[in-house]
Amino acid sequence: MEQVFFFYFALVIAASSVLVVAMRNPIYSALSLLIMFFHVAGLYVSLHAEFLAAVQVIVYAGAILVLYLFVVMLLNLKQDDRYHRQWPVAAVIGTVLVIESIVLTLLNGGSAPAVRIEQESAAAGLGNTEALGDVLYSTYLFPFEVASLILLVAMIGAIILAKKDLGGRHA
Amino acid sequence: MTVPLSYYVALSAVVFLTGLLGVLVRRNVIIILLSVELMLNATNINFVAFSQAFHNIAGQVFVFFALTVAAAEVAVGLAIIIALHRAKSTINVDEFQMLKW
Questions:
Q1: Of A76, A128, A159, B5, which has fewest CB within 10 angstroms of its CB?
Q2: Which residues constitute the domain of residue B51?
Q3: For chain B, what is the domain count?
Q4: Is B28 helix (H, G, I), strand (E, B) or coil?
């Protein structure tokens, strides 16, 4: 049953991520990214990471994607998005990397599930959100504060960058 | 938990390579940023899968931080795109050569 869910989510995630890259219209790309975000959230639920699934939907689908759509519609793009001139090089590199990753996955695939089974007994007594908050506010307290600093810097930077009179462009 | 860990790694690799290909071949700056989001999501899938496999919650904490960084990156990146569009009235990456000597 879990395999059925995994293959459904994996298929939709892979297909919609290909669509993100392949679509000509940026709005369609953003919308297929939305589909991908929702299915990644479903994958998190099947991995028993319910809190991250909720955060994925709220932050990625709710905030980040809305920001993208806002900018795409604000800029009123013309259809000038042909592929890059160097795309044959990228295609060759991408094909090589895909083949390499498939080979590596097939070579090492047999040893991975053993780890899972031998550690199966470790108890997860608390719920997902409680366990995450427990670790986040004790062990990872300092990175948590640094993350808030990053958000502050990003906020100030975005405001300054998007201001009307960008320095050095007085023409 | 019947799905092997390698399946998650394979899915993550496919999504990551798709994002990498998008960054390399597309010329629209917004699509390039969307492809960066794809790559960040691929790493997040890996983090959560390994966190579940090893019964260690630290992987999910790192997904949390990656999400924070992704939000910051989107805010700054879109502000840069707006500034560039205001300066050159295009978002084609081939037009931006101000840093080339």
A1: A76
A2: 5-95
A3: 1
A4: strand
| CB < 8 Å to A90, chain B | 21, 24-25
pLDDT tens per residue, range A43-59: 999 988 889 999 999 99
* Dihedral sign of CA atoms A147, A152, A155, A158 in order: negative
Whether B89 maps to a domain, the answer reads: yes
Task: Please state, in angstroms and rounded to a whole number, the distance separating the CA atoms of residues B55 and A50.
Answer: 15
pTM: 0.81
Highest CATH level, class, for A1-82: mainly alpha
Determine the pLDDT at residue A114. Answer: 46
| Domain range annotation of chain A | 1-82
Instruction: Give the ipTM of the model, two decimals please.
Output: 0.90
pLDDT above 80 (res A122): no
Residue B87 in domain: yes
Gap from B33 CA to chain A (nearest CA, Å): 9
Q: Which residues 103-132 of A have a C-beta within 8 angstroms of B?
A: 105, 108-109, 112-113, 115-116, 119-120, 122, 124, 128, 131-132
Is residue B24 within 8 Å of A87, Cβ to Cβ?
yes
B89 touches chain A (CB under 8 A): no
